[in-house]
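If your schedule permits, I should be very grateful for your opinion on a structural question. I have a record of one protein: its chain in single-letter code and its fold written as discrete structure tokens. Kindly check, if you would, that the fold set down in the tokens agrees with what the sequence suggests. I remain grateful for any guidance, and I place the record below:

***
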Amino acid sequence: TITPAGPFCENASAVNLTGASPGGTWSGTGITNTSTGTFNPSVAGPGTWTITYTIAGACGTTSTTDITVNPLPVVSFTGDVLSGCVPVTTTFTNTTAGTGTANWFIDGVNMSASTTTFTNTFNTPGCFDITLQITSAAGCTNTATQNDMVCAYAYPVADFSYSPTDATVLNSTV
């Protein structure tokens, strides 16, 4: 008998599977060590994989179990206004396929939990990294970051200087 395992996300750490009787040999997609039963979801990849545990000998037996590896969401998003003079108001739209929960980050700071859109006003000059983190319905999490996606510029300060500063009516050229 094999102790049930999974489901896993494709970026999960490797795990050692266990059987009721020790000393068997493991085989199947994602098995990276046939004697310890190490199953690596990133090696297996997304899908449902049949794993076999075989105990050799006259009283030997074979048992199988299915292990599911869920894919990571492929995160994508857009923004409508990506630059301008402060304040810059941008609406970001989650274009990730499938369902799940979303968290939006600006320069690494969690700003909002919204699955479809997120609007932010940038009131200070600078360029800002935008990150969207998606957790799929299966519990797998992935992120995408667009560095310097939004740039807000300060208004220019109009000013001038002149020389010489001691101009007169008779010497009026500056």
